[in-house]
Design a protein that fits this description.
With 307 residues, the chain is an alpha/beta fold. The protein folds into 2 domains: 3-180, Nitrogenase molybdenum iron protein domain (Rossmann fold), CATH 3.40.50; 185-306, Rossmann fold, CATH 3.40.50. The chain is built from 10 helices and 10 strands. The protein has helices spanning 3-19, 39-49, 72-80, 96-102, 138-155, 160-185, 203-209, 227-240, 254-265, 291-306; strands at residues 32-36, 53-57, 83-86, 108-110, 122-123, 129-130, 194-199, 212-217, 244-248, 271-276. The strands form 4 sheets. Strands 2-1-3-4 form a 4-stranded parallel beta sheet, sandwiched between helices. Helix 4 links the parallel strand 3 (83-86) and strand 4 (108-110). Helix 5 (138-155) packs antiparallel against helix 6. The N and C termini lie far apart (46 Å). The relative contact order is 0.12.
């Protein structure tokens, strides 16, 4: 869609939304209409809100949030929402203007907004911003879940106890998941704990679970990569005898294929270890279509390929 048309559409939809009540008053028998950007956030909201809300996620399986532009249908969903949750930390870079304008009319909440800066990864090459991929450290994602819980309690006090009880149950699941991830990664021989992917999405994962992480592209898939980057990563693979590299479901395989070929040209065979879910979950109705299932699938793929 042409940028100028999109801009006027945004203003038009917001003007329409502003003519009536923007935030509906929720009662015990009225469901909240909640819209989230990513599937990971949508899954967390659904766990906490339970049957008191309808939850819609804009970005489905295989969608790259760094490149995502809101469609006309998305704008209609956003303007009709009671609450909007997004990741923040510049993950949804191309949606920034839309979210900012909507925040003047209704609650628009970044789930990462209250995470202590000391726990975030500052990345110089990402315009010195913080790494937005917080969901790869399960203990850090717990803090995002707490933010969702707090927001829902504040905005719908009649159901506050219900939300908090659901959040506590979900957090217990996440705490168990965090322990499981640590145990599984520890089964990989220490010298083989290197995770190589298309873009640098797994930094929090590496820091939390003791595995070295390298990505061909930077934090955002908007980052450019060149022949030199491919050559240096291929050389690293050969020098360290890395067994496998990984494809991401939301990123083109072309870049990783170039790295594999570069290693082959140096006389070393490195395999594609499998597909990892990075910026999007799997298909709805599958285990990988939930946050917990996505994390488990990623860890099983990594461990199987690197052990």
């Amino acid at each position: 869609m042409d940028y100028r048309i999109m801009k006027w559409l945004i203003f038009g939809l917001i003007a329409i939304a502003g003519c009536g009540k923007v935030a509906k008053e929720n009662s015990e028998n009225k469901r909240l209409n909640i819209v989230t950007t990513t599937g990971m956030i949508g899954d967390a909201v659904a766990h906490i809100a339970g049957d008191s809300a309808d939850v819609t996620s804009l970005m489905g399986p295989g969608v790259d949030p760094h490149l995502y532009k809101a469609t006309q249908g998305d704008l209609q969903k956003l303007t009709g929402a009671d609450i909007i949750f997004y990741n923040g930390l510049h993950l949804e870079g191309k949606m920034g203007e839309v979210l900012e304008k909507l925040s003047k009319l209704k609650p628009v909440v970044a789930v990462a907004q209250n995470i202590e800066e000391s726990k975030l990864r500052k990345v110089p090459e990402f315009n010195n911003n913080y790494d937005p991929h917080i969901w790869f450290d399960v203990s850090l994602w717990v803090e995002a879940v707490r933010q969702i819980d707090h927001t829902l309690q504040e905005l719908d006090k009649a159901n506050a106890a219900y939300y908090h009880n659901n959040a506590l149950k979900y957090i217990r699941q996440l705490e168990e998941l965090d322990v499981w991830v640590r145990e599984q990664i520890a089964t990989i021989p220490e010298g083989q704990r290197t995770l190589i992917t298309a873009h640098d999405a797994f930094g929090y994962f590496g820091d939390a679970y003791g595995i070295e992480v390298k990505g061909l592209q930077g934090i955002s898939t908007l980052s450019e990569y060149g022949l030199r980057d491919v050559s240096e990563l291929a050389r690293f693979i050969v020098d360290h005898k890395i067994k496998a590299v990984f494809v991401e479901t939301s990123v083109s395989q072309k870049s990783i294929n170039a790295v594999v070929q570069g290693a082959q040209e140096r006389g070393f065979e490195v395999t594609i270890g499998g597909n990892l879910f990075s910026d999007a979950m799997g298909e709805a109705g599958t285990p990988e279509g939930t946050y917990v299932g996505m994390v488990r699938a990623n860890v099983n793929t990594i461990v199987e390929a690197l052990k």
